[in-house]
Design a protein that fits this description.
With 331 residues, this protein is an alpha+beta fold. Helix content is 32%, strand content 25%. The protein folds into three domains: 1-40, no CATH class; 45-173, Tumour Suppressor Smad4 (Sandwich), CATH 2.60.200; 177-330, no CATH class. The strands form four sheets. It has a six-stranded antiparallel β-sheet with strand order 4-3-13-12-9-10, covered by helices on one side. A five-stranded mixed β-sheet has the order 6-5-7-8-11, with no helix packed on it. It has a four-stranded antiparallel β-sheet with strand order 15-16-14-17.
Length: 331
């Protein structure tokens, strides 16, 4: 009986000699190495297993505006400093500060395009984008859709074709703080002074923040990224306004999703009832469409069953954020 290789992204079975998954197209080079022999597995996992010690050696020396990339099993990192965008690929001309030539790592043989992907600094976080590469860009074994940006975290694995890189971020960027204002909609102006009572914190604010946490964590799980704890750094009632100033860390992606997808859904929920004879809006259907849109933006390559599972997890959080009397008005 022939051996089978399980895809690290979709877990589909493939023949042992397959180079890419027949179901989703994920490169299988590293899956094969991990299942063949102990010697090969150790070689393929050098950069991952020694990541912590390598990070302790190099990252304390990095400025806040820098990051490191470990390529394959090379113990010497590539240090990228002081740039808002760096392009990854194979370059004939002399590399500039904004480009990283990976030719010496066997990039051509491993399917890296000349201009393959880029890492950009945007909204206080590093993000990865595919540049319409021939053989695809992968983040933690999830294929990136062209034209979309994907948040990077410390220790994430990048695949350019079949060339593996591991990214390390300085400690100052392991946690990202986001501060936003929340407006209390369903209240009289004279009631805002009671907005931080224990009862209100328990019945309204806590549920709202838990929904944000759930949105953040499902988003990361959906993309195959590690989940980090979200912490409340501060909650403060604004003077003379029915506003809360809230500061969280590790919740950036949830805030972006709320502003892009959930605030428009809130407007549908808040719309006045249709006049007699007019067709009413199907709000449950609009809720499911929003959930699907969020998941497709995060990871468009999921199979239907996995998509349904994440949609089931995400729906309560999206509904809470869309119907809560608290609304994010700025971030």
């Amino acid at each position: 009986m022939s051996e089978v290789i399980f895809c690290p992204a979709c877990h589909h079975k493939n023949d042992e000699d397959a180079k890419v998954c027949s179901f989703c197209g994920t490169p299988l080079t590293f899956a094969q190495q991990a299942t063949s022999t102990t010697e090969k597995m150790a070689s393929a996992m050098v950069s991952t297993a020694s990541l912590e010690s390598l990070s302790k050696r190099y990252l304390p020396k990095l400025p806040d505006d820098s990051f490191a990339l470990f390529v394959m099993d090379d113990p010497e990192p590539l240090i990228i400093e002081n740039t808002e965008a760096v392009y990854l690929g194979r370059f004939v001309q002399t590399p500039t500060a904004a480009s990283l030539d990976l030719t010496k790592y066997g990039a051509a043989e491993l399917g890296v395009s000349r201009s393959h992907a880029r890492i950009i600094w945007r909204d206080g976080i590093y993000q990865l984008e595919d540049l319409a590469s021939t053989n695809g860009t992968w983040l933690n074994y999830q294929r990136l859709a062209f034209g979309k940006s994907y948040e990077l975290h410390n220790g994430d694995i990048l695949l350019l074709g079949q060339l593996q890189l591991t990214i390390c971020l300085p400690e100052s960027l392991h946690k990202w703080e986001v501060t936003f204002d929340v407006r209390r909609n369903k209240t009289l102006d004279t009631v805002y002074l009671q907005i931080l009572t224990p009862y209100y914190l328990e019945t309204v604010v806590s549920k709202f923040l838990q929904a944000l946490v759930d949105l953040q964590q499902v988003s990361l799980q959906c993309r195959g990224q590690s989940v980090e704890e979200v912490h409340i750094l501060s909650i403060k009632a604004a003077d003379q306004k029915p506003l809360l100033h809230i500061s969280l860390d590790n919740a950036n992606e949830a805030i972006l999703q709320v502003r892009k997808w959930i605030n428009p859904l809130r407007e549908l929920y808040a719309a006045p009832a249709p006049a007699e004879g007019e067709k009413s809006l199907d709000l449950p259907r609009e809720l499911l469409k929003t959930v699907d849109s969020i998941l497709l933006e995060i990871n468009p390559t999921m199979d239907d069953e996995i998509h349904k599972n994440f949609a089931k997890q995400l729906k309560p959080a999206v509904e809470t954020l869309a119907t809560s009397e608290l609304e994010i008005v700025s971030a």
